[in-house]
Design a protein that fits this description.
Shape: globular
Structural class: alpha/beta
Order of helices and strands: HEEHEHEEEEHEHEE
CATH topology: Rossmann fold
Number of strands: 10
Distance between the termini: 13 Å
CATH class: Alpha Beta
Bound molecules: guanosine-5'-monophosphate
Strand order of the largest sheet: 4-3-7-8-9-10
Length: 192
């Protein structure tokens, strides 16, 4: 998606050979217009997949998910990373090791929001080693729901998550795939 790639080039900060900071439009401040375009792109790609729910992880997955929800006319459910006084019983939980925070969180969602009747699109801001993706997939499996695939805003193609998911036959649609962050420069994978 060209508008997203332009934004990454203009405003992304390469923190190391493996970490990209995009807090001016995705991870802290949110560019609503760009997120709307992201939502339109995901909904276009998945419009024939019979999606009934979008599943994401708080907090950075919520904006692109809600924009996609608006277009597809289905709700977004976000997994919580922290325990909550109001989220106690009848949960699906999974463990996720965070690439950026280097800590393991137990993520949870209420069982009432995803059921065996659902066809789920999982959306996230980044795909790196795939830990978040596996945790969310685990929750979809526990619910007995069908997985339509993944919508990823930024995939770091030099890490293993995308490859592993695709090798398992899972559909992964990434709007920008980064090939390298070496020499403080963002290089995108060429689109076929
Ligand atoms: P994974 O679980 O695939 O290893 O990492 C994905 C999660 O880690 C995403 O939900 C995202 O929050 C975070 N993440 C991974 N790599 C980056 C990165 O380069 N920049 C930012 N801002 N977040 C990242």
């Amino acid at each position: 998606m060209q508008a997203l790639k332009n934004k990454i080039i203009e405003e992304g900060n390469v923190l190391s050979n493996s970490v990209l900071k995009v807090d001016s439009f995705l991870n802290h401040q949110i560019d609503a217009e760009l997120m709307q375009q992201v939502g339109e792109e995901f909904s276009e790609r998945f419009k024939d997949a019979g999606i009934t729910k979008i599943l994401t992880l708080e907090s950075s997955g919520i904006a692109p998910s809600v924009m996609t929800s608006l277009k597809l006319g289905v709700p977004t459910v976000f997994a919580r990373k922290r325990k909550s006084l109001t989220l106690i019983d009848n949960l699906y939980t999974a463990k996720v090791h965070s690439f950026t925070k280097q800590e393991t969180n137990e993520i949870s969602i209420s069982q009432k929001f995803i059921t065996a009747e659902d066809t789920v699109l999982i959306i996230d801001d980044f795909l790196a080693n795939g830990q978040a993706a596996l945790g969310l997939m685990d929750i979809v499996e526990q619910a007995g729901a069908s997985l339509a695939g993944f919508g990823i805003v930024i995939e770091k193609g030099f890490q293993t998550g995308g490859k592993e998911l695709r090798e398992r036959g899972i559909r992964v649609e990434s709007l920008a795939i980064i090939e390298s962050l070496e020499n403080e420069k963002v290089t995108f994978k060429e689109e076929k």
